[in-house]
Amino acid sequence: MLVLGIETTCDETAAAVVERHDDGRATIRSNVVLSQIAEHAAFGGVVPEIAARAHVEALDRIIAAAMADAGREFGALDGVAAAAGPGLIGGVIVGLITAKAIALVHQKPLIAVNHLEAHALTARLTDGTPFPYCVFLASGGHTQIVAVRGVGDYVRLGTTRDDAIGEAFDKTAKLLGLGYPGGPRVEQEAARGDASRFMLPRPMLGRPDADFSLSGLKTALRLEAEKVAPLTDQDVADLSASFQLAVVEMVVDRLQQGLRIFRQRFGAPSALVAAGGVAANQAIREALRKLALQDQVALVVPPPSLCTDNAAMIAWAGAERLAHGLCDKLDTSPRARWPLEQVDKPRPDPPSHDGRLIAHGVALSTPSPLVGEGWGGGSSRCGTEVPSGSTPTPTPAPSVVA
Amino acid sequence: MRVLAIDTALEACSAAILDTDRTDGATSRSVPMTRGHAEALMPLIAAVMAEARMEFADLDRVAVTIGPGSFTGLRVGVAAARGIALAAGKPAIGLTTLAALAAPVLEADDGNAVLAVINARHDRVYMQLFGPGGRSLVPPRVASTRDAIRAAVARPTRIVGNAAQLIEDAWPDGEPRPLMVSAVSAPDIVSVARLGAASADLTAPVKPLYLGDADAHPQEAGIVPRR
């Protein structure tokens, strides 16, 4: 099963072709990422309108590059997947519309993938991790602990009450004048800093739930920084290190709670899985290794290029959904908000669609069989392959387009 | 020449198939809407293609309105056109909404000027002024309502677009009234297809014409001073 994936929910324009073999193994045929970092750097963060403008002018050639890298024609695809949310809506629209266009022209199933679901399923792409497993998903926009019980079956065990972890890194970088993107810069500074110099709070530590909170830490950091301002290079390094350590300790504590809740509700997880851009942070990766060892749970940390936003994970999630007979109609909405628990689950007997689109009270009669059935409508033509346990094949490094 | 035309720039979602070798006219659908283009467009294109019994492989080009208009609407249309062009291996052509609005008016009579105006809010309009023969006198730009009128008031003018009424209401009392006011809310999609068929430039990349920047400002506030 060969699926094209498209990712445009934030500041990466990405396309990839992934093959899901009959036994559930995966091969990444191509993985192209165009970063917009330069476009947003001057603004200290991602500007939604700038992101949307960049996506629409780059996406088609990124897709062409991914197809060329994979050495396949559109006609060879079994499905076209796009991240349909959650994310910055302008970019989501561009990616989803482009996927719809390719699906329509080549009469392939469209799969509207939840971006968080794609992060959550990445461990199966890279490591063939069996269900159920516990995902720590942390990025610039999301911080969640999720029980992944099956394709489409996700239970959120914990989330942030305010900022996402990646967002807190970005804000710290901004505060310290380190620029954008903040995560890698704070990590770089922290590597040569003294983490014990500033006493920062560990929000949420010891609480029985698995939630996060970052805003108090952010405020405390600002107060400490202002106390010693103007900042020397060493101050910046020490503040970065102190901040990073506080985050790491909170993450470890919250994950211990998350794993405890997981076991209570669902039994033993097959693994603890890291996903999202924050999982590219080496200090956090190291802390996860220690935690997994101590907690006696297998740890799966995909390579950084598959932790940060990419289209291979979208293609893979699309393939997993397609293998369960899940696909979407051509009138599917792009969504700024889309909680993971609200994704469609595989159903043994899916409801049929009547092939009509209601837009603002106007019924557009859509001629069957073009839209009413098959690739546009129900799930029977999507494929009903039964998934099986899997072992991974080596994945090629992503190509980065300048 | 077989053209698929797409317009989602303003207050409609429209698609048309024009085959210039056929005499029985174009196949088109247009649904008024202010939001929901991203949902409605692709089923609409599928419906028009089916009704015209056209395959994507048989198309010669894809024409799309690139703006000015709703930023989101422009991206829906342009992404669709570029996606179809990529998938079908056909060229895509961008046309401005202002030219598309003026086209039917100029087709009916090109002896007088046409002012195409689209509401850009805050008492501003996107405008383009066409002289006799369809020659562009003022290229697409953002202007205050007053400046738009000032550009057009010197000659007998017809006004077209969703800001036409706004312009007429603000028309100065002492001046000769506009010859015609056509407050259409979106371009005629068959006109878009005809312009697309007539367009010679297949090389320019199809990009949205925003006529406005992204309204973002570099953020320097909140940085703790460095030594």
How are the secondary structure elements laid out?
The complex is a heterodimer of chains A (402) and B (227).
Chain A: E1 2-7, E2 12-20, E3 26-35, H1 37-41, H2 48-70, E4 79-85, H3 89-106, E5 110-114, H4 115-126, E6 133-138, E7 143-150, E8 153-159, H5 165-175, H6 182-190, H7 215-228, H8 233-266, E9 272-275, H9 282-295, E10 299-300, H10 304-307, H11 312-323, E11 356-359, E12 362-365, E13 399-400
Parallel strand pairs in A: 1-4, 3-13, 4-5, 6-9, 9-10
Antiparallel strand pairs in A: 1-2, 2-3, 6-7, 7-8, 11-12
Helix pairs in contact in A: 2-3, 4-11, 5-6, 5-7, 5-8, 6-8, 7-8, 8-9
Chain B: E1 2-7, E2 12-19, E3 27-32, H1 37-51, E4 61-67, H2 71-88, E5 92-96, H3 97-108, E6 113-119, E7 124-130, E8 136-144, H4 145-152, E9 157-160, H5 164-169, E10 180-182, H6 189-198
Parallel strand pairs in B: 1-4, 4-5, 6-9, 9-10
Antiparallel strand pairs in B: 1-2, 2-3, 6-7, 7-8
Helix pairs in contact in B: 1-2, 3-6
What's this model, at a glance?
With 402 residues, chain A is an alpha/beta fold.
Kindly describe this structure.
The complex is a heterodimer of chains A (402) and B (227). Chain A has 402 residues and is an alpha/beta fold. The radius of gyration of chain A is 21 Å and the shape is globular. By secondary structure, chain B is of the alpha/beta class. Chain B folds into 2 domains: 108 residues, ATPase, nucleotide binding domain (Nucleotidyltransferase, domain 5, 2-Layer Sandwich), CATH 3.30.420.40; 85 residues, ATPase, nucleotide binding domain (Nucleotidyltransferase, domain 5). In chain B, 30% of the residues lie in helices and 27% in strands. In chain B, the strands form 2 sheets. Chain B has a 5-stranded mixed beta sheet, with helices on both faces. Chain B has a 5-stranded mixed beta sheet with strand order 8-7-6-9-10. The longest helix of chain B has 18 residues.
